[in-house]
Amino acid sequence: MNEKPLYNAIRKMDYNQLEKFSKRIREYIYNTVTKNTGHLASNLGTVELTLALYRIFDPEEDIIIWDTSHQAYTHKLLTGRWGSFKTLRQKNGISGFTNIFESKYDYFGAGHAGTSIAVALGYELGFKKQHIEKNVIAILGDGAMTSGMVLESLNQLKSINSNMKIILLNNEMSISPNVGALAKLLNKVRISYDYYNFKEKLKESLEVTEVGQDIEGVLKKLKDGIKHTVYNNTLGIFEDMGIKYYGPVDGHNIKKLEHYLEFIKNYNDGPCILHLKTIKGKGLSFAEENPTKFHGISNKIEKNISYSKVVGHTLNFLAKNHNFITFTAAMENGTGLNILKDNFPEKVIDLGITEPSIVTAAGAVRLSGIFSVVDIYSTFMQRAFDSIVHDIALQKIPVLFLLDRAGIVGEDGPTHHGVFDISYLRLIPDIEIYTPLNAQDLANMIYTSFKKGLDKPTFIRFPRGGENINIDNIIENLKIVDYNWKLIKKANNKNILLVVGQLIEEYKDLWKELNATIIGIRSIKNIDNHILNLYIKNDVNVITIEENSLKGGFNEEIKTYILKNNISCNLFTFGIDDFFIPQGTRKELLDEFVVKPEKLKNIILSSEKVK
Ligand SMILES: Cc1ncc(C[n+]2csc(CCOP(=O)(O)OP(=O)(O)O)c2C)c(N)n1
Hints:
Pathway: Metabolic intermediate biosynthesis; 1-deoxy-D-xylulose 5-phosphate biosynthesis; 1-deoxy-D-xylulose 5-phosphate from D-glyceraldehyde 3-phosphate and pyruvate: step 1/1. It is built from 27 helices and 21 strands. By secondary structure, the chain is an alpha/beta fold. The longest helix has 22 residues. The structure holds thiamine diphosphate. Thiamine diphosphate (TPP) binds next to loops.
């Protein structure tokens, strides 16, 4: 990746050229994303900001931190990745997020929301200790702003004598409309009469008077007064925390943006925040009209019903006869909970990007007397680990957790793969972890949790993807199930495959080909001792396959079982080795890093030869 960065070139452009260039960037982003998948609407909303930013600040010298970084495509295009952007989100291609291994201009990697202020704060503290003076800029959306990490870090800025420059992109949206009091406050502030217009008007009127001789001098003197008059919108919440507030400003007007960016660049009296009003999906009417739908786009023609939708429909069915609350962390659509919300809005609560708080609140909901469900992606649940241990498991609160996208997610890459949850949950006492084999099994497990009730905190993990099913059939066939492991196929030999969860469905053709007994693992905690007793004996070849890190994974249960029972057998473990899986399609990555069909076949063939 030795491309010449473009940010120098844009400094020489006039505003007409910049406007044309913005259009070209938008087209390029749209064409690439429709071909490769990716975040669309958020990136369309940051084109002008990024152009203005790199005309005023220096991406090589100044530390610019993009929160979540799903909106940083223009940043990538301007910092030496114009050509390679064609490989966006493909295997070995450009990441959809900032990545410190990809470019020196990416000062921090992201993917999970809410880290930017802590990162910028850390850079500032470090530089201060080394007597280095640099501009440190954090850019974040109003959605990210709701997250605990952001609020925790903002709270410290004044006390560490920060000079951080925060750029807040307020498009009134997270993925769905943004929630919470802060969102309401931000949305209420309208661009009314900004400093720029005020200054221009003042200049005009002064030019015809005597004082006009020294316009700039007068302007300087008046500056503070102006600030007070024009910023009558000042958001007290930031000012009260000692963070100077400027705005709101039209985030799509390059000239104005430059003016304000220049202003905050020279502001060195403490931390400040520049509030921009942006339009998610800007420039493409269909994306502007439906920013939620075009937040991220996929290139697949989807004939399958996603597992998330199976969850949504099942909860929607159960909602008719059950009183419960389901929590989402700003992922109503991604989790399929919009289906439930359409009919039972009071049963879905979006608390924004606040995973730890949601888990804790869900525990208290359960204690208050009603059934409580938390539906969060496996990767984002990582942030709530302590809430699970301290607030849920330790107090044995029987909350139902639905862990969506548990496993390899594909093009989003390492920040989003949900390949650690078996490990981070298995170690917690007094919980149950289930891994349904297919869509019906997933729906049945949820149904069973409601109908039979829960004894313990219960986690149902299922991957990204779906099946070509009729959802009405799934609902009609709902039934109470046990959690025993399932014999899929019996072979008259010593090869025993223990295949975790939905991999049974995903690789169903492969299992047919293999000369082995195939067992579908539906429960990880607890394990099915009856099946293990039946099949794991001296001399067998046990093969475990799981879409999770091998460290801490299901395989370790089997290792322990074999050791404990003094069984002398071969054990082969398939799963994710001790490294971060890169990006690629889900199938590509599963084949290469998890199931490895050729390797698997060879093991089985060679065991036959030994016989
Ligand atoms: C911890 C965490 N939870 C959830 C998400 C999923 N997510 C990705 S972008 C996004 C919305 C962010 O909204 P905002 O910061 O306002 O940016 P916008 O997309 O509106 O530009 C969410 C919820 C995430 N990335 N990280």
